[in-house]
């Protein structure tokens, strides 16, 4: 039962989630989580918009801080990751989180970085009822921040309660349950089970969304019954509903890919984009190109204006660049809930079970007619996936 956003004048995201939890008592914990994420997004919005005033632009530790992706970490990558981890952990509803900035999923009950969440007896409190797994990219497109180009936070929430994952006390001498064993005795069978709780397909997501830090600050959310987009009203410090029940246009006239990689794309994609450019596609319209190099901004525009966004496989990156668990799958959930499609080329992204936390996947998503048309080029070629 998801009350229509418009039923409540003066509603905010907080009030909307409150009404949902009231109508669906089983979602009380999810309400807590979304509340913590929106608070984190407000904090990140402040950090990003004031970055040049406070001087937190540039690279972490003056450069040289490399994340698990092998990318140089921006100061804001580190800060925003901590903001989200703290926000999620203090809900007491988290079991495990996975982040672009963390080498392996982190057991938030033991995470050294933010202290132990425990009761007065010092025992880790594991909220069996509402334990969730959160996956997120705390500041996607962070390389754009120094130039003031839009960035975003992407998040997905899985329900972990069904997983065979009991988080015991951290073994003596080990940092956490999931990092590759430093000492042999840190190997622990339990991490495979808890890892499984993290490596779930997009079709198992119970919620996903993004925050977009741009000319406005947006909070997009799906709980599996449509997409609602809220806009931060700085006058009241609340996200207010501005795009209820988002429906991606059936077709757009925009394609959004990094054409610098064009020569590395496979033949079906090159032919498809050339036909769009020449007005030789199904619509007969000549498409235009829009690409800001920040997935959240490009997907947001695609949701509202239609067309197709992609970071496809190419000869340099067999699986493209975007990560399945915390970028492609949460965005695919949103796009599908808005009536769009999200494929790797031929395969539905939501069906893919991640084999590792940072696994990359080709992404082509957007208006249903555009994505279906693109797929016909792959169907016509054998051997492309
Ligand atoms: P390129 C940002 O680094 C990001 O992960 C996405 O936000 C964005 O869509 C993509 O990479 C841009 O990559 O290679 O086109 O700069």
TrEMBL record:
Q: Which domain of life is it from?
A: Eukaryota
Which classification does the entry list for the species? Eukaryota, Haptista, Haptophyta, Prymnesiophyceae, Isochrysidales
Q: From which source organism is this entry?
A: Emiliania huxleyi (strain CCMP1516)
Q: Which UniProt keywords are present, listed alphabetically?
A: Carbohydrate metabolism, Hydrolase, Magnesium, Metal-binding, Signal
Which is a GO BP term held by this UniProt record? gluconeogenesis
Q: Which GO terms describe its molecular function?
A: fructose 1,6-bisphosphate 1-phosphatase activity; metal ion binding
Q: What is this protein called?
A: fructose-bisphosphatase
Q: Which GO terms describe its cellular component?
A: cytosol
Domain Fructose-1-6-bisphosphatase class I N-terminal positions: 11-243
The shown range, given as first to last of full length, is 63 to 447 of 512
Q: In which pathway does it act?
A: Carbohydrate biosynthesis
This entry's Enzyme Commission designation comes to 3.1.3.11
Question: Which segments constitute the Fructose-1-6-bisphosphatase class 1 C-terminal domain?
Answer: 248-378
């Amino acid at each position: 039962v998801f009350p229509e956003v418009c039923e409540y004048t003066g509603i905010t995201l907080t009030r909307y989630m409150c009404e949902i939890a009231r109508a669906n008592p089983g979602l009380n914990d999810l309400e807590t989580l979304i509340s913590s994420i929106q608070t984190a997004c407000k904090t990140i919005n402040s950090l990003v918009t004031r970055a040049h005033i406070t001087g937190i632009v540039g690279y972490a530790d003056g450069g040289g801080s490399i994340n698990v992706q092998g990318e140089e970490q921006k100061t804001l990558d580190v800060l925003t990751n901590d903001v989200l981890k703290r926000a999620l952990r203090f809900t007491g509803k988290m079991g495990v989180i996975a982040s672009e900035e963390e080498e392996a999923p982190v057991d938030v009950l033991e995470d050294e970085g933010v202290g132990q969440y425990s009761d007065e007896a010092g025992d880790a409190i594991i909220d069996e009822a509402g334990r969730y797994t959160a996956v997120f990219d705390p500041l996607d497109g962070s390389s754009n921040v120094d130039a003031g180009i839009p960035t975003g936070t992407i998040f997905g929430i899985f329900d972990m309660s069904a997983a065979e994952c009991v988080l015991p006390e951290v073994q003596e001498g080990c940092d956490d349950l999931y990092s590759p064993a430093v000492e042999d005795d840190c190997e622990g069978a339990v991490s495979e089970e808890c890892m499984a709780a993290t490596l779930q397909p997009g079709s198992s997501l119970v919620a996903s969304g993004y925050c977009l830090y741009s000319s406005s600050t947006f909070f997009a959310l799906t709980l599996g019954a449509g997409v609602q987009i809220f806009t931060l009203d700085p006058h009241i410090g609340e996200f207010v509903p501005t795009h209820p029940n988002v429906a991606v246009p059936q077709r757009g006239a925009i394609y959004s890919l990094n054409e610098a990689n064009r020569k590395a794309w496979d033949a079906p994609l090159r032919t498809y984009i050339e036909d769009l450019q020449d007005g030789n596609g199904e619509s007969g319209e000549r498409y235009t190109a829009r690409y800001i190099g920040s997935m959240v901004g490009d997907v947001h525009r695609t949701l509202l204006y239609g067309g197709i966004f992609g970071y496809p496989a190419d000869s340099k990156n067999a699986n493209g660049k975007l990560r399945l668990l915390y970028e492609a799958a949460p965005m695919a959930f949103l796009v599908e809930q808005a009536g769009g499609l999200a494929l790797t080329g031929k395969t539905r992204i939501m069906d893919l079970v991640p084999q590792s936390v940072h696994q990359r996947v080709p992404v082509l998503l957007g208006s249903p007619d555009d994505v279906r048309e693109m797929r016909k080029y792959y169907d016509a070629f054998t051997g492309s996936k």
